[in-house]
Design goal:
Layout (H helix, E strand, L loop, with lengths): L9 H4 L12 H11 L4 E4 L6 H22 L15 E6 L3 H15 L8 E4 L5 H7 L4 E6 L1 H9 L10 E4 L2 H6 L3 H10 L5 E6 L4 H10 L4 E4 L9 E8 L5 H11 L5 E4 L3 H13 L4 E4 L5 H12 L5 E4 L1 H4 L9 E4 L6 H8 L8 E8 L4 H11 L5 E2 L27 H10 L6
Parallel strand pairs: 1-6, 1-7, 2-4, 2-5, 3-4, 5-6, 8-13, 8-14, 9-11, 9-12, 10-11, 12-13
Length: about 425
């Protein structure tokens, strides 16, 4: 089968370079005709199967058809028939900034010959929101976005989702894996019920089944079997220590156990900076990763971490959304997560694709009660270890034991930011 047989407009076909796209992949052959017809599509296929082009071509084809209709109505240019202000025609949600940039580049290459007639916009966190708000003035045809920044822009009244005709969830399994369930729920509630939805993932766990069944209407299901994903193999440990000893304990574990690549979760930006600085003094290559860093700095830290130039990254939960490291061997909870859901997301960063992973949690006397609640909700019971020289010697005051119950529902992003700003950082 060739791309010519899939129902795409000749003008769009001319953008596909034969060397780059000699023939459609099986996913593209099945997905493109269904998507062109307006049908919901549910794709489960491994990485590298051509899923991005499988939804990008139908979205651009729909856009070109709309432009052709505008011209037939006597509007020779788009400027004489402008987009509706703040409106989005097609929305593509992706889990990471890196993927957002990659996907936007593909869309821009497909629409380059039409110039400003096709408006492609990409938005993601970690950079100033003001240029993105300016870029959305007058609406956009196709918006590629990460969930958090999309909600930020909606809060700033920079865009509306009431006119979205097509929704794409790209790497939907990773969206859930990285903790975007609540953001997805908020976004879905703002979308019109009458829309086309394209749902794409590499795996199909139960959480994906539930999400797909809730938002898709009589979808065409496309399943391509790749390598069978191996179950996560994660060794979980809980180490009891004093709050003031955690940084020294962290240094000890990294050096004594020769940990090669460690993602450490901390509660605040301040802790991220302070602990990273103390590790560097000890000769350990460490960098903070939090919301106040520039996008360029974040990307550099991530690149250095992936290339093993940085051994330890100290990350806050908010900053780590969308942070994806393949074959990450070790996760350490320097500060305990606020909920069992957060615990699951944190330790789920390791032990992927059948690789062995290690998840260590520091439990202090004042957080024992909170840790017990996490264990209960996570259906796990770990022996609390003591490392010689780092044993817990303090006793928490009665009014400080525990940190309250675990909420069943994650607070909004704004709530979290307020909590973090108001909270006093624990002694690193």
């Amino acid at each position: 089968m060739s791309f010519n047989e899939l129902g795409l407009m000749p003008e769009l076909l001319s953008t596909l370079k034969p060397k780059a796209y000699p023939a459609p992949t099986p996913v593209q052959s099945d997905c493109i005709p269904a998507a062109l017809s307006g049908k919901d599509v549910w794709v489960t296929a491994p990485t590298g199967s051509g899923k991005t082009l499988a939804y990008a071509l139908p979205l651009v084809n729909h856009l070109l058809q709309s432009l052709a209709q505008i011209q037939q109505q006597g509007h020779p240019t788009r400027s004489s028939h402008s987009r509706n202000a703040k409106q989005v025609q097609s929305l593509v949600l992706v889990p990471t900034r890196e993927l957002a940039i990659q996907v936007s580049q593909l869309f821009m290459s497909l629409t380059a010959q039409w110039g400003n007639l096709c408006k492609i916009t990409v938005v993601f966190g970690g950079v100033s929101i003001n240029p993105q708000m300016m870029g959305l003035r007058g609406g956009t045809d196709i918006l590629i976005a990460t969930p958090g920044r999309l909600l930020d822009l909606i809060d700033h009244n920079a865009l509306q989702l009431s006119s979205v005709k097509t929704l794409v969830l790209d790497e939907a399994d990773k969206l859930l894996e990285l903790g975007f369930q609540d953001e997805l729920n908020q976004i879905l509630s703002l979308l019109p019920s009458q829309r086309q939805s394209l749902f794409l993932s590499a795996t199909r766990p139960q959480s994906i089944e539930v999400l797909a069944r809730s938002l898709l209407r009589s979808p065409l299901e496309i399943q391509l079997k790749g390598e069978t994903p191996q179950p996560a193999v994660i060794e979980q440990r809980a180490i009891l220590t004093d709050t003031a000893k955690r940084t020294q304990l962290l240094k000890h574990l990294i050096k004594d156990q020769n940990l090669k690549q460690v993602l450490v979760f901390v509660a605040t930006q301040h802790s991220s900076e302070i602990v990273a600085a103390k590790l560097r003094v000890a000769g350990i290559a460490a960098e903070p990763f939090h919301g106040q860093l520039s996008q360029g700095k974040r990307q550099q830290v991530l690149a250095d971490f992936k290339a093993h130039r940085v051994k330890v990254v100290l990350a806050t939960d908010l900053a780590s959304r969308g942070l994806d490291i393949e074959k990450l061997p070790t996760v350490i909870n320097f500060d305990l997560p606020r909920s069992a859901v957060d615990y699951t997301h944190r330790i789920g960063r390791t032990g992927r694709a059948g690789e062995a992973g290690l998840a260590i949690s520091f439990v202090c006397p004042e957080t024992v009660q909170h840790w017990t609640l996490i264990e209960k909700r996570h259906a796990v019971k770990l022996t609390q270890e003591s490392i010689p020289g780092f044993e817990a010697t303090t006793v928490a005051p009665l009014d400080a034991q525990g940190v309250g119950g675990i909420k069943g529902k994650r607070p909004s992003k704004k709530d979290k930011l307020r909590q973090l700003a108001a909270a006093k950082s624990p002694t690193p």
